[in-house]
Every structure is written in C-alpha cells, then in structure tokens.
C-alpha cells in the first residue's frame, strides 16, 4: 500500500504539487500561513526573527518536497549510494542558497515587497550552524551542495553540536571566546526524527565464549548506554535533487528511571541524563591538533555508531542481505575523525549479525574510502591504547585482531621488523597508541589526498609504506568549492555580469566560464567588472566600520588573508611586510607603494598561544598604522572579528588580492584560495596545496608566485636552517624584527611580542625569514600591476575565466568516477 508515488498522494487529496508552489502568490500565501499558524504571530507583533523563521519554514517545505521526491526515485531505482561521514559541517546560512537553488529569488523578493518587507533584511537575520572549524567542515558542506546538484544518492552524517565553534570577540586586541548559541532562536531548517534513534554503548568489558554451534562469540557488557536521535536538514541541489544532512544528538537512554523511588536516586538519574547529553554539547575548536581528549573519542564513536546502525537499517529494511552492504553503500571517511567506523562495522557484522570475520573484513574493506586532509604530524590522530580500551574495549580487541592479521601479511611478504613497526596500527614508541590514519588506510579500498601536491606528498611521506604496498589504492581528488554559494549568492553583481555575457550555463558547468576569456581586454567590460568590485568593496567598507570602527577607502587595494590563524599559514609573514611598509613610509620613502588596506580574519584555537599572539600582533599593528596620519593615507590594517561563512560571503567578493602564503608542503589544499580567485581576486602565493593547480590553470603571468618549493624547504632544513643568520645578514629583516620588541607596538610593551620574536630568530619552523625577501619583492610587483588598472582587470577576468576546475561539482564527479562508482539519479519533475 506504500508503493504509490508521492504525486498520487497529492492528487488523491486534490492538492497537486502547487501546495508547495513556487510562484509569487504561492510564496506569499505560504509565508503568511507560517507566520500566523506556525508561529502564532499577528503582523503588529512580529520580530525580525519571526519573519525570518516564517520565510525559512516556507522554503524548507519546498526543499523537503525535493528531498522526498529524490528519496522516492533513489528507492525505486534501488541505487547505490554514498554516506559521507564527517565530524564537522559548516553549511553557512541556508535561506539565500535555497532560494537560488529553487530559482525563486525574484518571486520571493516580490512576494515580500507586496507585504512591505525586504528580502535582504530577512536574509541578514539568519545566523549559521558553526559545526566545524574551517576548511574541512566547509568542504563537507560544499560537497553536500554538489552531491544534491549532481543527483547522487547520498546522505551526510555528522554531529549536532549544541554549541558550535566559539564566537570570537576582540578585547583590547586579544581574541576572547564566547559560546556559540546557534540554537538560541530556534533552527527552522531541521526536523527531529525521534523514531530514528539508536543506542550506543561505552566502556565496560567483553566476554568471550563459544556457543552451541561452536561459533566463537563475544559479548560486550558496557557500563553505559546513550541514545542518538536523528536531526535532518534538507540540502537542496541547484534546480535538482534534495539530500539530507543527518546529525545525531545524544540523549539519555531513559530520561528518568521510573524504577527509582527515592529523591537521591531521582537526582542521580537526572545527572546521568545530563552526562549523556554532554557528548554532543560542544565542538572541539582545534583544527589541526587533536589532543587525545576522551570526550572527543566518545563523540567520534557516538556519531559513527549511530550512522552505521542507520545505514544497516536502511539497507536491510528493503529486504537486502547485509552481506551485500558494500554493493549498496560507499562510505567516505572525512579525515580520520570517523575512522573508528572500520572497527565498528566489523563489530556490527561479526558480533551482532554473526558474519564470519573474513567475510566481514571483505565487506568492510570494500565499503570504506578515506580522505586525508593533512600532513601535519600534530594533526594525525592517535588514541592511546589505554584510553581506547577503556572507552571501547571491544573495538580495541578488533583493532588488535585486524593488526595481527595485517602484520602477518607483511611478514609473509618478507617485510623487515622496522617496516612492520612503522606500518603497524599500534605505535609502540612511548605510550602505546592506535594510529587512526593507519586503521583508515588498511580498512579502506581507496585513500585520497585533496590536491595533486598533497596526494603526492601523502604517498611519498606520511603513508609511503602503504603506497608501496598498495599503489592502486591511492588517488587524488582536488578539492573544489560550491561556486553557486560563493559567487552566485555572495556576489550577485558579478554573477549577473557573467550571466549577461555567457548565459547561465556556468552555474552547473563551471568550465564554461572560459567563455569570458574573450572579454578580458574589452574596455567596457573591464569597466563594468571594476564597477562590480567597487560596489562590493564599498559594501565591505560599511561592514568593516560597523564591526571595527575603522574607516577604509574602497579605492585602495584590498589585500586579504582570511583563514584559521596558524603559524604554518604565516599570517605573521604578511604582518612583517606591513611593518616594513610602515617603516618605509615613516622614512618618507613612499614611492611605489600602492594604497592598500590589509584585511585579516580568522579564529585561533583557544589553547594555541602563538596563534593568539599573532592576532594580538595584527591588532597592535592595526592600531599603530590606522592612528598615524602620516601612514594611514597609504595603508590601513583591519582585523575582522568572528570569521564565519556568512562573513566570508561578504569578504571574498570584495577582495583584490588573495594571500595564500603558507609554507610549501603544509597546506593540504586550501579552499579559500579558490573562493577568492572565483571572485576575481589575484593570488599572491607559494607552491602549496591547490595553489599549484590554480596557478597552472590561470597561468603563471596571472599569479604572483613567491617562496621556496617543498623540495627547497626540505633542502634548507637538511642543510641546517639558521634563521638568526638572516637576521644578521639582512638589514630589512633585522629592522622589522627589532621593531617587534622595540615597544613601539602595544603602548611601549617591549615584552609582549618576544615569544614570536624568539620563535622566529631561534627556530622559525615555517621559514618566514628565508621567504621574506621573495615575498616583499612579489609585493612590489603587485603594487606595480595594481597601478595599471587595465592590466589588473584583465588578469582578474582571466583568473575567473580559468577557474572552471575548482567547482565542488567537479570534485564530486571525481569521487564518483575514481572512488565510489556511483551514478546520478536525477528526479524528473
Ligand atoms: O582541510 C584542512 C583544513 N585545515 O580543515 N585540513 N584539515 N584537517 C586543510 O588544512 C586544508 O588545506 C584543506 O583545504 C581542508 C579541506 O580539505
């Protein structure tokens, strides 16, 4: 009886699809309906949040319709699908993107205008779920957008953190963190599914025995259980399917234990409930350094277990055999954060579904694929054997079993003791710990890096032994970005100009931007290109003043570095150059300096002292520069607090120059680099991550390259890098560094920046001093080109025209072809 199509249900009640219609009248009617009957508001008493919520609910209905239709189609076609497991997502505001995807921006604007309301004000009202730290989480959300657009049967699983990434405020120049209460005014986009919930076990011990049929069995007797409940958010594709991001919230298995009858136990039961809910309370705010926190391991296991149980339910619900699981699901591990899934799937198959080890291992290894996102040693996750054994005793046994079989295989192949120790899932040096990247690699059928360079380094360095053993397992998928969000929604001026010239094809096929090439030298087109940029810069100027009180001139060159604050990203290299400019201006040597506003934004991990000191340095230099009449006509410095997706959408469209200046070999890919270039910013950058491919695409003559290559960096290190030598021998470096501790910054405090000063002089682990001259020289070239606006604009147009490769649609297509072997199933409307 449930085999009827959705259309026929609508027909049977005489409603037709128009109940979620997309005309101006439909939207207006639905919006008022939501306002009155969902929120219970009369017009005179509505708050901005009510208006936003009513609009969001109106659009959510329409998104859900797409999603329901997609599910219907996926099910009918019994399609193979993808589950994307990610501990982080950064979806950004949903409303604008959904309006674009439904193609109803104009209709909605008009519907609201007829009610004397303004769409932009409503859009501005929306906050965002900060359920990630940076690149990795935002990538996951770009992928959701593209999965939906391409019609890939898919689902994104994650964690519904009650508090996302902290809110950053700047107080007396320092970063201060406050909690992000993103659910405070409600979240109209999600739907709670109380009926979709699973029990997840923790702690306790295992019991091994042989059953009546001589089968070896293991019971896990946990010491606590927690329930995970699904919260679904529909993610729309562009004029296409809808998919679901399913996030798990932790709850006590029983909120109140009714067997207790005395007050003391009642309170204990309440405490237990609170403890359980702690698991999904807060996101760990470190992007590159995971410090072995117990709660973090619990979070990872919790969401992985819920997700796998859910997939098994979805798979078997339709009468399919569990042994065919891998034929229906490819599971992508977004970094090692969900890699405990390898052991969990084994446990579910072997212990709970009684599949023999060898067969279960075959299924597991044909199910998972693993994306590595970093080469930084401090970011490669490890869990001590003692912690893992205490929280997940059965999983530790399974990991040991996987390892002993794997090492046996290596021994059979004649591997040496050294090699075996290097490849083992257990690191025996110091306190024994489980290497999660090794578990993910052994348990997956494919492993990929996120840019050509990164994938190459992954194979030649971090996972070198594994790449030798299984060369076919390793591949690359260069990251991409949701260009619809980051150009069409964020930069409507540019999007309209592009569409006017080449049509709308670029929205679904970014490569067609190449048709813009022929206009690169067209003077009229160049002028309009500049007009759009100026408009965006003027809008950002207002925002900057509102946020920081600093007035900047939109005619200046906007030179921007926005990303997490990290030594390897070298925000401080940009600052050293600004100090050099300041000193030059003070010396009266202002020739060749193009008037510039240097804009920074980004969060530092709360426990990362040097990163926080770098923020303090930026704000100190900003105060010095902005308050000095002699200087501030030529340069200004801004630190925009609380960088997030919404702010990013204002910043990228207004940038002239994009700073991608990490030490080569450290940034796996970067995705901000792509968003800037797509918005017409030129890049100054090193040969790191995806910069390499961006430069290949846009052409060397349209990219400001500087600094050492990965190989040169290694060579410098091998030769014994002595940063002090650069200080001694390079007058400019000496002057800039001495300035840091001169007391001229930060009200005469000579000690404040000493830790940075010493760090650079004594270790300089990211070789700023070695790359400094080359960076400064490139900046001179930037100024020169900027002074020739026609030349600059031509380069800017060519940059955009040649960025076709960097859509996340292309990345997802690569995943489908190279890894998942999944085909699109598009809904027919
Ligand atoms: O992932 C990153 C980012 N920090 O989240 N890595 N991690 N982990 C890399 O550092 C970026 O280079 C990369 O673009 C991003 C997404 O792959």
From TrEMBL:
GO MF annotations, alphabetized: glycogen phosphorylase activity; pyridoxal phosphate binding
Cofactor: pyridoxal 5'-phosphate
Function: Allosteric enzyme that catalyzes the rate-limiting step in glycogen catabolism, the phosphorolytic cleavage of glycogen to produce glucose-1-phosphate, and plays a central role in maintaining cellular and organismal glucose homeostasis.
GO cellular component: cytoplasm
NCBIfam families: P_ylase
EC number assigned by the record: 2.4.1.1
Group of enzyme by EC: transferase
Protein name as it appears in the record: Alpha-1,4 glucan phosphorylase
Species, as recorded: Salinimicrobium profundisediminis
Annotated family: Belongs to the glycogen phosphorylase family.
């Amino acid at each position: 009886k449930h085999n009827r199509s959705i259309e026929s249900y609508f027909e049977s009640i005489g409603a037709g699809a128009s109940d979620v219609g997309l005309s101006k009248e439909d939207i207006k009617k639905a919006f008022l309906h939501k306002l009155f009957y969902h929120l219970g508001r009369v017009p005179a008493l509505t708050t901005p949040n009510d208006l936003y919520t009513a609009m969001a609910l109106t659009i959510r209905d329409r998104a859900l319709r797409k999603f329901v239709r997609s599910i219907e189609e996926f099910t009918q076609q019994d399609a193979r699908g993808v589950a994307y497991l990610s501990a982080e997502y950064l979806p950004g505001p949903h409303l604008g993107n959904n309006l674009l995807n439904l193609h109803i921006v104009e209709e909605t604007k008009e519907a609201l205008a007829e009610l004397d309301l303004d769409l932009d004000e409503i859009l501005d009202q929306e906050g965002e779920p900060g359920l990630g730290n940076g690149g990795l989480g935002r990538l996951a959300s770009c992928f959701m957008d593209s999965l939906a657009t391409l019609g890939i049967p898919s689902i994104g699983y994650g964690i519904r953190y009650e508090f996302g990434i902290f809110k950053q405020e700047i107080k007396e120049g320092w970063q201060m963190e406050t909690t992000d209460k993103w659910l405070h005014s409600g979240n109209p986009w999600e739907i709670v599914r109380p009926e979709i919930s699973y029990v997840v076990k923790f702690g306790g011990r295992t019991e091994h025995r042989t059953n009546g049929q001589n089968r070896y069995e293991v019971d896990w007797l946990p010491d606590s259980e927690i329930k995970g409940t699904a919260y679904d958010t529909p993610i729309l594709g562009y004029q296409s399917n809808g998919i679901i991001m399913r996030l798990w919230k932790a709850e006590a298995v029983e909120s109140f234990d009714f067997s207790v009858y005395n007050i003391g136990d009642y309170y204990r039961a309440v405490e237990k409930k609170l403890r359980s809910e702690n698991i999904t309370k807060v996101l760990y705010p470190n992007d590159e350094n995971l410090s072995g926190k117990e709660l973090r391991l619990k979070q990872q296991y919790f969401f992985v277990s819920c997700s796998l149980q859910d997939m098994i339910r979805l798979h078997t619900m339709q009468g399919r055999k569990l042994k065919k699981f891998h034929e229906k699901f490819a599971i992508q591990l977004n970094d090692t954060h969900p890699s405990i899934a390898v052991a969990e799937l084994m446990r579910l198959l072997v212990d709970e579904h009684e599949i023999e080890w060898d067969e279960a291992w075959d299924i597991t290894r044909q199910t998972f694929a693993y994306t590595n996102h970093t080469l930084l040693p401090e970011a490669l996750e490890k869990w001590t054997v003692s912690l893992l054994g205490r929280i997940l005793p059965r999983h530790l046994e399974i990991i040991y079993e996987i390892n002993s079989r794997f090492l046996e295989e290596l021994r059979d192949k004649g591997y040496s003791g050294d090699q075996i120790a290097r490849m083992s899932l257990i690191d025996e040096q110091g306190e024994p710990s489980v290497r999660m990247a090794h578990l993910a690699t052994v348990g997956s059928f494919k492993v990929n890096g996120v840019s050509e360079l990164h994938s190459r380094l992954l194979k030649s360095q971090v996972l070198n032994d594994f790449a030798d053993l299984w060369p076919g397992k390793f591949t690359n998928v260069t990251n991409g970005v949701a260009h619809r969000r980051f150009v069409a929604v964020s930069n409507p001026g540019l999007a309209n100009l592009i569409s006017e010239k080449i049509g709308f094809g670029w929205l679904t096929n970014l490569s067609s931007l190449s048709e813009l090439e022929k206009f690169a030298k067209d003077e009229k087109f160049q002028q309009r290109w500049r007009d759009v940029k100026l408009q965006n810069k003027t809008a950002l100027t207002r925002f900057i003043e509102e946020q920081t009180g600093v007035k900047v001139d939109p005619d200046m060159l906007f030179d921007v570095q926005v990303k997490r604050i990290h030594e390897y990203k070298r925000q401080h290299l940009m600052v050293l150059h600004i100090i050099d400019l300041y000193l030059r201006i003070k010396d009266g040597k202002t020739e060749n300096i193009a008037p510039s506003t240097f804009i920074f934004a980004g969060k530092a991990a709360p426990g990362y002292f040097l990163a926080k000191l770098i923020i303090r340095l930026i704000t100190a230099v900003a105060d010095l520069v902005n308050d000095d009449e002699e200087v501030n006509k030529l340069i200004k410095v801004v630190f925009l607090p609380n960088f997030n997706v919404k702010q990013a959408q204002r910043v990228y469209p207004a940038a002239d120059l994009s700073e991608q200046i990490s030490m080569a070999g450290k940034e796996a890919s970067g995705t901000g680099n792509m968003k800037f270039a797509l918005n017409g910013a030129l890049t100054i950058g090193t040969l790191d991550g995806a910069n390499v491919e961006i430069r290949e695409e846009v052409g060397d003559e349209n990219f400001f390259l500087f600094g050492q290559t990965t190989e040169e960096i290694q060579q410098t290190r091998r030769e014994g890098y002595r940063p002090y030598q650069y200080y001694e021998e390079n007058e400019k470096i000496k002057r800039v560094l001495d300035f840091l501790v001169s007391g001229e910054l930060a009200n005469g405090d000579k000690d404040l920046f000493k830790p940075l000063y010493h760090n650079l002089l004594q270790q300089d682990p990211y070789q700023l001093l070695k790359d400094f001259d080359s960076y400064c020289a490139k900046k001179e070239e930037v100024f020169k080109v900027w002074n020739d606006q026609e030349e600059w604009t031509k380069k800017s147009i060519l940059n955009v025209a040649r960025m076709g490769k960097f859509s996340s649609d292309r990345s997802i297509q690569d995943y489908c072809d190279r890894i998942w072997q999944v085909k699109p199933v598009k809904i027919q409307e």
